[in-house]
Design goal:
Layout lengths: L5 H16 L9 H8 L3 H7 L3 H24 L8 H14 L1 H12 L3 H25 L5 H20 L7 H17 L1
Helix pairs in contact: 1-2, 1-4, 4-7, 5-8, 5-9, 6-7, 6-8, 7-8
Length: about 190
Amino acid sequence: MAAPRKDNVKEKILDAAQELLKTGSLSDITLSEIAARAGVSKGTLYYHYKNKTDILFDITDRYLNRQWDELISWTENREKDTSIHRLVMYVMQRNVESAGIRLHLLNAAMLGDEALREKLIDRYGEFEKLIASKIAERTSSVEADYLARLILLSSDGLIVQEAIKNGSFDTAAFIAQSAEYIRKFNER
C-alpha cells in the first residue's frame, strides 16, 4: 500500500484542528490533540507544522480560498438569480455561516498574532475587491467599493451578535431587510 500523500496528511491535520476549534479556543488545543484527532503521530504533525500558528495560517488560507471560489462560482451560475440584492444576501449569509472559524482567526489576530493579522488584512482587501467587482457587474446605482465594505463590516457585526448569542437580534431578518433595501435602492 502506498504511503499517504503529503497533501492528504496536511488536509487531515487541518480538518482535525478545525474540528477541535468548534469546541475550544486555539490556546486550549494542544498539538498532541490535533495529531491524535488527525490520526497521525506528533512527529508527522511536526514535520508539516512547527506550531499552531502555522496550522491556523493554512486553515485561514483554506477558508478564504473556499469563500473566494464559492463566490465566483455562485456569481457565474447562469441558472441562479445573482442580482445585486441576492448578492448582498448571499455574501452576508455565507459570512455568518462561517462565524466559528472567523472568530478564531479574528481573535488570534487581535491578541497579537501579527503575521496572521497582516494576512487577514491582505485577504480581506482582496475579498472586498472581488465583491466590489461583482457588485459593479450588476449595477451602477450604488458605489461598489462602499457597498462591499458595508457588506463585510455588517457581516462582522452579525458574527459578533451570533457569538454573544443576542437573542433579541434576528440575524436572518437583518440580512433579508438589507437585501430588500438594496433591491429597492437599485430600482430607483
